Backbone:
């Protein structure tokens, strides 16, 4: 089966790209990447997020670096001094970034707090919890300001890109867009690229044409993303043929059987099973579909199979 499945995927990918516009949105540490595949045309990559996004994010993260240095009792003795030199250079060259006044004040406050913390004599790993919390509290409001500024740059950029692509594809074209975003656990519930795309594709696309792929790394490749999207879309043909609903196979096909086994084994042990509420296969909830009333399709494999009876034989 695996060999047949793998051999079929290239033609499935070609079919997907020939039928629908496809948007791939990828994390890259610099505000993300977005690529648009239009049927019959080469992939088009959007311009990157303006570099000021990276400056703002790096300034905010400088406080986190201090926290990590302070916690390490085996810290390289050169690391704090080297970072202190970098912070001093940052304070000197901050005007070159041409930040708006509010962002510049926040950046100066964070770097000054970092410099003050690093200039206090202490042995590696000797910072107390109280010292670290006081440092964190002093930085937090300014870090939030820098994050707000960075997010505004990022969101404004991607919404401008999607505005242009919406015009390029037209309303009917955009209504058929299939999009996928990669994410780690820590960015799943508040994934920025996914949330921006949801504003354009709409709630009804979530879990249908707008997909969130969890990965073990922050970064992945467009080719891997397209391959996984192809597999999801192709499996929907199988889901419809076998079980009467395409999205039955969007989730672990053994999951419902495993839930049944867990219930049985927990009952044997006299314990209450810890299980999620089942949502219909066509639920558009995000990030976790758990509301039984959020769709009209079956919510488990057994119900879907019972409803999907063989056709009566032809006369």
Residues:
């Amino acid at each position: 089966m695996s060999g047949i499945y793998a051999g079929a995927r290239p033609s499935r990918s070609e079919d997907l790209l020939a039928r629908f516009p496809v948007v791939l949105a990828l994390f890259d540490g610099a505000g993300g990447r977005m690529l648009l595949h239009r049927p019959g045309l080469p992939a088009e990559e959007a311009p990157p997020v303006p570099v000021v996004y990276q400056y703002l994010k790096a300034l905010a993260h400088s406080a986190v670096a201090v926290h990590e240095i302070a916690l390490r009792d085996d810290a390289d003795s050169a690391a704090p001094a080297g970072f202190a030199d970098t912070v001093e250079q940052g304070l000197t060259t901050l005007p070159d970034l041409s930040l708006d006044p509010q962002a510049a004040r926040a950046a100066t406050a964070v770097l000054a707090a970092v410099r003050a913390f690093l200039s206090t004599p202490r042995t590696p790993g000797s910072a107390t919890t109280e010292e670290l919390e006081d440092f964190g509290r002093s930085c937090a409001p300014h870090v939030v300001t820098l994050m707000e500024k960075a997010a505004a740059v990022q969101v404004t950029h991607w919404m401008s890109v999607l505005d242009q692509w919406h015009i390029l594809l037209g309303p009917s074209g955009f209504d058929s867009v299939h999009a996928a975003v990669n994410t780690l656990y820590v960015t799943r519930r508040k994934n920025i690229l996914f949330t921006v795309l949801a504003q354009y594709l709409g709630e009804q696309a979530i879990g249908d044409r707008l997909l969130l792929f969890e990965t073990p790394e922050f970064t992945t490749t467009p080719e891997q993303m397209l391959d996984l999207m192809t597999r999801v879309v192709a499996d929907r043909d199988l889901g419809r043929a076998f079980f009467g609903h395409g999205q039955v196979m969007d989730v672990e096909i053994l999951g419902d059987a495993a839930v049944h086994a867990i219930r049985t084994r927990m009952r044997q042990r006299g314990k209450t099973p810890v299980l999620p509420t089942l949502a219909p296969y066509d639920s558009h909830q995000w990030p976790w579909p758990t509301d039984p009333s959020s769709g009209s399709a079956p919510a488990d494999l057994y119900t879907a199979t019972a409803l999907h009876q063989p056709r009566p034989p032809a006369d």
